Amino acid sequence: MKVIDKILQTSKKFLEETGELAYFSARFFKEATKRPFEFKEFLRQCYNMGNSSLLLVGVTGFIIGLVFTLQSRPTLQEFGAVSWIPSMVGISIIREIGPIITALICAGRIGSGIGAELGSMRVTEQIDAMEVSGTNPFKYLVVTRIMATTLMLPILVFFGDAIAIYGSFLVENIKGDVSILLYFNEVFKHLEFGDIIPATIKSFFFGFAIGLVGCFKGFTCKKGTAGVGIAANSAVVYTSMLLFIIDFIAVFLTDIFYDL
Q1: What's the CA gap between 8 and 169, in Å, rounded?
Q2: Distance between CA atoms of 238 and 232, rounded to whole angstroms?
Q3: What is the pTM for the complete model shown?
Q4: pLDDT score for 218
Q5: Whole-number Å distance between alpha carbons of 149 and 129
Q6: Quick one: which of 65, 75, 78 has its CA closest to 173?
Q7: Distance (Å, whole) CA 179 – CA 174
């Protein structure tokens, strides 16, 4: 009976949080279309998020390109298919590896930061003070951050993809003496809009999910200062799960449209 009660309580809590998150997202769309628009705060958040994540995304993308090529080259070499490395690496990174890895990095870097920042503002009653002073804290704190993550993540994905492909080129240049012009010509020759467009579209959804969950966890933070750590941690966990769900749906829908 205790196990059943625990399962029921967990299910109830999950459904309650899902409903609250749905209401939170509906409120975002409502507030995002109302004046006044906080352009200065939005631009400041875009700069902070992009600037803080640029180096991490670049280093991670570079290492992914190196490792992916080093791991796949010996196998392709056995079949005499080394010439397929540029197209294989380019399509794999742009379609799937680049967007999801970059999103997971930003979930840990940006999502946890948003959760901790808004959570600390909630427990120290700064958000309540903003409401008393006549400022709309939801529009100023939540809407600007969600819009910033939605816009910046595709840019970070493009940057990470480019660095990853360049890392792959360095391996090919050392191992096979391939010029950069030949390598990138092979990459772009096999790329199609069907590879780039779906990856770009789902990157916007990844960014929206990161901002939404991070703001939701921080804005609804409870239990005093201990809740700040819980908000930051749960923001990363829930966002990571949501990213994989969105990725699965995006791949499934893309496969359907390709079949059509």
Answers
A1: 53
A2: 10
A3: 0.90
A4: 87
A5: 26
A6: 65
A7: 10
Q: What single-letter DSSP state applies at residue 124?
A: T
Average pLDDT, the chain: 86
Confidence label for 63 from pLDDT (cuts 50, 70 and 90): very high
Cβ atoms < 10 Å from Cβ of 66: 16
For the beta carbon of residue 155, count every other beta carbon within 10 angstroms. Answer: 17
Q: Which residues of 14-30 are buried (b: 16+ CB within 10 A; e: fewer)?
A: eeebeeebeebbeebee
C-alpha to C-alpha distances, 166 to 44, 57, 69, 133, nearest whole angstrom = 30, 14, 11, 51
3-state secondary structure of 18: helix
- Is the alpha carbon torsion for 145, 147, 150, 151 positive or negative? negative
CA–CA separation, 242 and 212 (whole Å): 11
Q: Which two tokens stand for residue 4?
A: 């059943």
Q: Is the pLDDT of residue 160 over 90?
A: yes
Q: What is the pLDDT of residues 30-57, one digit of tens each?
A: 888 888 888 888 899 999 888 888 999 9
